[in-house]
Write a sequence for this structure.
């Protein structure tokens, strides 16, 4: 018969020696160090999120054609269409929307904001 081996008791093993740590920093230095680390992490982040502009599609830009007498006179005499458009749109957006929806070439766009608060575009 083979001799019986004694099992090693896990509790009798020696624990590895703890490494010596650097001496503790004074409170003021520790606080400054932690603030510096926090600033390094937050450096590229903004505290206020940027407000996103909802992108308007072509159908939202042009609300309706204007069919008043003066608008009809513009159409006949000056070859100019008149539309009510969204207040937040600019001339480039109006030009692209008219080009896409009506398949016409736009020479220029003039805009004005009416007293009732809506924007009128002469195309």
């Amino acid at each position: 018969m083979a001799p019986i081996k004694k099992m090693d008791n896990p509790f009798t093993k020696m624990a590895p020696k703890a490494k010596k740590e650097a001496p503790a920093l004074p409170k003021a230095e520790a606080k400054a160090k932690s603030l510096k680390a926090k600033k390094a992490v937050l450096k590229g982040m903004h505290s206020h999120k940027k407000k996103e502009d909802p992108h308007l599609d072509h159908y939202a830009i042009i609300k309706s054609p204007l069919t008043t007498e003066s608008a009809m006179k513009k159409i006949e005499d000056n070859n100019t269409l008149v539309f009510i458009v969204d207040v937040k749109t600019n001339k480039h957006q109006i030009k692209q929307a008219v080009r896409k929806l009506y398949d016409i070439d736009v020479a220029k766009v003039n805009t004005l904001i009416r007293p009732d608060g809506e924007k009128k575009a002469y195309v």
User: Anything to note?
Assistant: The first strand starts at residue 62 and ends at 65. Residues 27-42 form the longest helix (16 residues). The chain has a mean pLDDT of 83. The CA atoms of residues 43 and 112 lie 43 Å apart.
